[in-house]
Amino acid sequence: MAGRLIVISNRIPLEGPGSGGLVVALHEALTDRGGIWIGAQETDADTASEKFTRHEAPGYEKLTFELTAKDQEEYYLGFSNSVLWPLCHRRTDLIDFESRYADGYERVNRRLAHMLAEILEPEDRVWVHDYHFFPLACFLRELGVKNRVGYFLHIPFPNGSDLPALPHHETFIDWISSYDLIGLQTQRDVAVCLEFFRGHPKAELLLDGSAKYGSRTTQVRSFPIGIDVDVMLQAADARRADATLRLGDGERLIIGVDRLDYSKGLVNRLKAMESWLQHREPDEPRATLLQIAPPSREKVLAYREIRDEMELLTGKINGEYSEIDWTPVRYIHKPVERELLAALYRRADVGLVTSLADGMNLVAKEYVASQDPEDPGVLVLSNFAGAAEQMPDALIVNPYDVDEVGEAISQALRMPLDERKARYRELMRGVQEQDIRWWTRAYLDALARCPVNLATETEG
Ligand code: ADP
Asked: Which Gene3D superfamilies does this UniProt record tie to the protein (predicted)?
């Protein structure tokens, strides 16, 4: 297909191809097709440049736009992470809004739209990633841009009943209907998004599952994101966790790996562990929860609060249940390099994912991909993680019911090898079939096929 692929994401790896499934997949898609990757870069200057900065990259171009300290505070920490993140993760109680955040979000998106409109050629396709850029297509349309513009939202689509908590929420429909294709993680997200269109007096749903608003038609489809399975397998094969991790004789391992974020259900997870400890039968083996939770967005108050809560609860549980030779919860507040992470996944008898809301949750897929096929561990997975839709062979739990999760831990620890293998085979098949390369292909094929909207005006 003619024209370049133009990818927009807030984060862009500037040193080499970068690591992490998404970054590598975008790098490969751009290397195969040629194009431009555009991302943000902080500047010390008081005013952001109106021009992109070009960076060396083989096979395609990398361009960055500047974010001043004020942009960082208002657009990134403010509107993106203190308003949109809690809104989409069903925590409207945590929304921390100031008018300057909305101004900063609009300012950065309008500036980027102007810069982008300057360099777009008629056949280019634009692929915008995530909640930092909801209004980008709308601002591009206002500038007369007619190119195909697709969007992928990596986090849950906000519930229609929560949306009025978004300041200036009336414009939200203009933002999202300006895209030609909206990609979401799950069928459930698609249903929520279409329901939002259905509920709007000026929008209508079409039979093919797309939504019409004014003169524009937007396709809404799910593309569950996957991982790079081979990289995970190689990492898990490369190293054994036993050299680093000391466990007692017969002691079992439960692993949790998450950014320290309130959406991940970490407090519930500790409480579930407490419930398991409380109900543990005398003949049940000891198990330790290794919770790896690196710091995240610490400038935002809600993130500092969850850190305090975790420290308190870990201390309380260990105070009550530790023995001289057993500490049931090991909480590590730092990142772990990928090979060790994979080795720990493989060593763990149980992978525990208890998100209260989560776009996909890649940790669930990484845990499965790292297992030894002859002696696989068991995935306990929250019904509220997007991954649950594709992974029914995990032990699916309601993370709000900590006793249910405690029982699932017990069931996982007792599960016979045959059942573990059967569940693993099904889970691994899905993880392999719909991996990260499948995801980029599926999205970009759909974007290439979706009808182009020739009208550019947005409805008021
Ligand atoms: P989110 O994108 O909300 O952080 P995901 O589970 O989808 O959640 O992705 C998290 C990614 O970050 C995974 O690839 C995971 O391996 C990685 N990660 C999470 N915690 C750590 C950690 N402590 N050390 C290294 N990588 C981590």
From this structure: Glycogen Phosphorylase B
